[in-house]
Amino acid sequence: MRLPDRAWLNLYEPGTVRRLLDAAAPVLDNRPSVQNLEVDGWTYFAEVVDQANAAEANT
């Protein structure tokens, strides 16, 4: 959950995990030979929430 606007991500909602992976893709592409790379998803939270809100507003 992001404060103060209380935005949150539902990982069960279709497309949410895909948006997280798309946001992290540049970091993942920098180390293609690493099989188990840990990436802190919190740094992508705002971008993914904003994308989800924009998609929801367009429907």
Could you walk me through the main structural features you see in this protein, from its secondary elements to its overall organization?
The chain is mainly α and 59 residues long. It contains two helices and no strands. Helix 1 packs across helix 2. The longest helix is centred in the middle third of the chain and has 15 residues. It is elongated and about 40 Å long.
Summarize the structure.
This protein is mainly α and about 60 residues long. It contains two helices and no strands.
- Described by the principal axes of the CA atoms, the overall outline is elongated
Secondary-structure element series: HH
Q: DSSP helix count? A: 2
Structural class: mainly alpha
Could you give a short account of the major beta sheet?
none
Separation of the first and last Cα atoms = 23 Å
How much β-strand is present in the residues? under 5%
Which bin fits the share of residues in helices? 40-55%
Rg to the nearest angstrom?
13 Å
Mean of residue pLDDT values: 80
Q: Which residues sit in consecutive blocks of at least 5 with pLDDT less than 50? A: none
**What's the count of strands?**
0
